[in-house]
Amino acid sequence: MSESSITSVGIDFGGTSVKLGVCRGGELLTTDAPIPTAHFAGPAALIGEMAARIAKLRETYPDIAAIGVGVPGLVDFDHGFVHILTNVPGWKHVPLKAILGEKTGLPVVVENDANAMAYAEFRYGAARGLNNVVALTMGTGIGGGLILNGQLYRGSGCAAGEIGQMSIHFDGKPGHYGNLGALEKYTGNKEIAEHAVQRYAEAHVQKTLEECTPKMIADAAKAGDDIARQIWDEIADWLGTSLSSIAWLLNPDAFVIGGGVAQAGDLIFDPLKRKVQSMLSTVVWERLQILPARYSNEAGIIGNASLAADSIV
Amino acid sequence: MSESSITSVGIDFGGTSVKLGVCRGGELLTTDAPIPTAHFAGPAALIGEMAARIAKLRETYPDIAAIGVGVPGLVDFDHGFVHILTNVPGWKHVPLKAILGEKTGLPVVVENDANAMAYAEFRYGAARGLNNVVALTMGTGIGGGLILNGQLYRGSGCAAGEIGQMSIHFDGKPGHYGNLGALEKYTGNKEIAEHAVQRYAEAHVQKTLEECTPKMIADAAKAGDDIARQIWDEIADWLGTSLSSIAWLLNPDAFVIGGGVAQAGDLIFDPLKRKVQSMLSTVVWERLQILPARYSNEAGIIGNASLAADSIV
């Protein structure tokens, strides 16, 4: 796919704020000041503010031709309908596409945020030009998005890509849904911190949870701390188990990994690649890349804007 | 997709014999006597025999318009090229599509056998009318095929669907590739037998491996043997862990399960459904069906014939 020449708005709807930007061909032309969700009583007022912001942006960018919104929750993509956003009060059964489309007169697409991130990496980021891509965002939880045969794969209920809920141990730690061995109960930021505190305690080193963020463990490892290095190897073992299972199932071209854990760089990517290779056949491994994400905070805006632009061609 | 009106030949290339049949619209019109692979010295002679058999079938079915061949190994689908069949001597780097196409003058498709089985179930079997389907064949190993967005998904190197190699335990039993926790090392027929012998031994009952086939364990459970029931529950736990991980990743409409284990019927399907439900969110579970395969031995012929017929419309 070549670069889009369409100008579009990307909206990254987070738990506390809504960020807007204008993109063309994967380039972020401008970003608007974030809208704090708490300032607006319910969906109607907040969508009204989005429309007002878009109207203003169109004064500078009159060629804006489409709007893409990514939300932190379950959507019905075909109808642009938001089922529920658990972290945003009042957002339940909202026909976002219909309302925003009516207020702006522009075509609107509504997508899950992890899917939008995957699309940004596929279309203009680390996985550009590849056909089958699995993207992960690692933070408190682990989200994922799939590009299969060059298209976003959403699954039967727009709920695909929940990599953090996949099991790495049939009798392991229960996840949010009681699902034993859920990956994010091993490699979510909180669980990494808990594990690190325990590993240090075993070596008679006292650390608090606050001292064991991915960044701090990475800094410690870089400074020569053997325990910190060992923790990264363990994270690589757990995460690599999931990635190799996904690779056996989907035989993809690439994994793209973003979020705090990915920022540890070689500390995580080196043992992770070794682990995944050790779990695969040559045929599956030899076409597989394991890549850090190109985008971070701007992934949502670029992904949603690109989805919107590509939806009208 | 409606029933195909095209008549086509399906060829199911197994480790010891090659089976041929003529199909139309998912219906098996006739089958030919199997060709024993050992009677033919190498690919050229065997492909010659296939072509001769097809010529004969065309005397009765002059409207045969395409040929589909499924092989037990890795293929390049786009080129109809067989990389290697580990169980059939001499089958390495064989341009099967080109040779068989030239000998018959008909369009030929070459597919992996597990993919062909998945296609048969999707097109005319248990998963007919569904869009996202994961099919498993359980025997010595566990093969799989994926239908995503209404199409066979092959992956970047035509190697997708290796469900038996996915891990259910990050520190579990090593699979064929050294991959820790490989599902088929828990639920392959041989491993089930070994596990059963051990479970019986713990209860001071002596059984041989030969007395612990899936069928025998199913018969024992039906006759009221508590140990046998417990074994089925354990198989359901292991298999269900894999299925739930796949469901989180792909949010499919259905799993279709064939092979010896599936023939245990409710003994496996009841605890399997309970296990998978216990591992999923309502959203993912509520659209998910777990179904026994419709086809058994004829799956290969019907799947390959259907792939060939659908490839020329």
Automatic annotation (TrEMBL), chains A, B:
Pfam families: ROK
InterPro entries per the UniProt record, alphabetical: ATPase_NBD, ROK
GO function term, MF aspect, one: kinase activity
Gene3D superfamilies linked: 3.30.420.40
PANTHER family attached to this UniProt entry: BIFUNCTIONAL UDP-N-ACETYLGLUCOSAMINE 2-EPIMERASE_N-ACETYLMANNOSAMINE KINASE, ROK (REPRESSOR, ORF, KINASE) FAMILY
Record family assignment: Belongs to the ROK (NagC/XylR) family.
Protein name: Glucokinase
Record organism: Prosthecobacter debontii
Lineage: Bacteria, Pseudomonadati, Verrucomicrobiota, Verrucomicrobiia, Verrucomicrobiales
